[in-house]
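Marked as duplicate of an earlier ticket. Keeping the data here for the record.
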Amino acid sequence: MPRSVSRFALTPRALAACVLLAALLPAGCAGVPSALAPVPAAQHLPARPPDDAAFAVRALLGRIQGAAPRGAGYAPEAAAALDRQPFAYPGFRVAAHSLLRYAAPPGAPQSRTASGRLVLADAHGRVAGLAYDVAYHLADGALVLDRALTAPVYRRAATVRAFLVPKDRLPPPAPTWEEAYATAGRLDAMPPGGLRTPHLLGTHALLLFVMERLHPEADLHLDIPIPEVAVPLDQVRLRAGAYADYDGWRVAVVVLSPGLTARAAADGGRKG
């Protein structure tokens, strides 16, 4: 059965928050820690991941991206698992790190195991979730990953970036997400204050970019409101085949009826 993703609205505020998240990503990172952090008491995880756990995440993501940080080492099992990842998250960095477990393996006080969830973001504001589980130790000035497992995490809500593109200039599908996004930006005719009246929908279509990575089987429900219109517009459901999918980030063209929008606004006004 297809998975359903919660409805959401096209809100400039949500988009701004997503872009700001990417803009605030750290510019630099600390090197290999000289010692492992003490293991906290059960149920008392630190508010901030210890430096060694943070570096282990850097080592994990760096290996996936083909740019392992200096001081990272990999046992054959960990290297093989990370090299099998089907998507390399090019240009993504860690925007948020939630530590779920941090411990020392039995009989190995100089090693650590850690698991958690990451929010990855790129400069465009695209976001992806990634769960991880690692085991590692320090040796000769390096942090060595003995085990490294990852799995994608999918949210039940999403943020959309909307472009208003003339119907006679709608571009063909682009080979990459980055090219599609750049083309939409060049063609965008969205008024500075947003789409406040429906008259432009007669000659323009909405080009929608879902900024969160979605599960391959997820159906996406869109309620697209226009400010000053009392009721939602046509409900749009993006099912398989109704969008281009770039490694989980979806792009869709939505054509709405201005006549239907006007009637909806009139009906809503009478009911109010």
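See parent ticket for discussion. The helical segments are 12-23, 51-65, 76-83, 177-187, 258-271.
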